[in-house]
Design brief:
Strand content: 5-15%
Strand order of the largest sheet: 6-7-8-3-9
Largest sheet: 5 strands, parallel
Shape: elongated
Distance between the termini: 37 Å
Helix content: 40-55%
Order of helices and strands: EEHHHEHEEEHHEHEHHEHHHH
Length: 307
């Protein structure tokens, strides 16, 4: 039978604190049984890192921007899996909708919608109505949908309109793209709120078809991770959030291997670290060590067969 030494330290008030290598929230999870910990590891969770915090700071600046005729806009661009949507979801959670009992009105600071599969104005207005919880009128024309969406958005007084997956614009013709972007410019002008578009590198090309609109956008890139202090900080943060009962040992060679396997994509790094943590719990090792991915065979056993 294998026994593991659990690290214990004294807190300032003299109480015993288990698992000092973890963040406080993760320490509580580490006390759970294996099944519960694995379930928590597999669930979505926010992991802070400098580039994500910089993106959130940009969004906060836009949110507090004084109203004017031409509001500034932001394009968050990065490869699929770089955490763009997670940043938007985090920002939306930080600015939840609220109901004013005095006026009887709902205030929704952030209205976030996912771009439809092509530049279709009617379907997009329907997405907006769904995002704000408004019933869709039956057999409504584009003019009716536009009027209804504008009226309800004006009542909600949003501080920002977010369009995710904006690169889907390129599924349409140049003429369709231009008409859709003209609609976005119209929405921004009418509501006097910043537009935040989120997408892959192709999003830049899609926005460039409207010269007036693209000049109002500032681009914020989320590039793939490379060797350096930033990725070391990311892995260190991840280690402290994974509810393993012993401190992991990730060296420079292992870090380089993780970057090679994932291509530096954020979701890939999170997935590899999560799978390694789950394997460590299931084996009883309770920590991630370099030998876990020192060979292709071990790494494949953890990650599974490719499709």
């Amino acid at each position: 039978m294998r026994y593991w030494i659990i690290q214990v330290s004294l807190s300032r008030n003299g109480m015993m604190t288990e698992f000092p290598h973890l963040y406080p929230a993760a320490r509580q999870l580490a006390a759970l049984n294996a099944e519960e910990r694995i379930h928590r590891i597999r669930a979505d969770r926010w992991i802070s890192y400098p580039r994500a915090e910089a993106a959130l700071a940009k969004l906060e600046t836009l949110m507090s921007f004084p109203e004017r005729a031409r509001m500034p806009n932001l394009l968050i661009v990065g490869e699929s899996g770089m955490g763009k949507t997670m940043i938007i979801e985090k920002f939306t959670r930080d600015h939840p909708a609220s109901f004013d009992e005095t006026t009887g009105r709902l205030h929704m600071p952030v209205v976030a919608v996912q771009m439809v599969s092509g530049p279709d104005e009617s379907r997009f207005y329907r997405r907006i109505l769904a995002a704000i919880g408004a019933p869709e009128p039956p057999r409504a024309t584009l003019a009716v949908l536009e009027s209804l969406a504008l009226r309800l958005l004006s009542e909600l007084r949003p501080g920002m309109l977010v369009i995710d997956e904006i690169h889907s614009l390129q599924a349409g013709t140049i003429r369709e793209q231009a008409r859709f972007l003209n609609m976005l410019r119209f929405l921004g002008n009418e509501l006097r709120v910043p537009l935040v578009c989120v997408g892959t590198a192709q999003a830049r090309n899609a926005l460039r078809t409207d010269n007036q609109l693209v000049r109002r956008f500032e681009a914020f890139a989320l590039p793939p991770w490379r060797d350096g202090e930033d990725v070391i900080g990311l892995i260190s943060t991840l280690q402290r959030t994974l509810p393993l009962r012993c401190e992991s040992q990730i060296d420079e060679k292992m870090l380089t291997r993780i970057l090679s396997v994932t291509g530096g994509i954020t979701s890939g790094i999170f997935s590899v670290m999560s799978q390694l943590a789950i394997a460590a719990i299931e084996s009883g090792e309770e920590r991630i060590v370099p030998s876990d991915i020192s060979s292709a065979g071990k790494l494949q056993a953890v990650l599974g067969e490719p499709v």
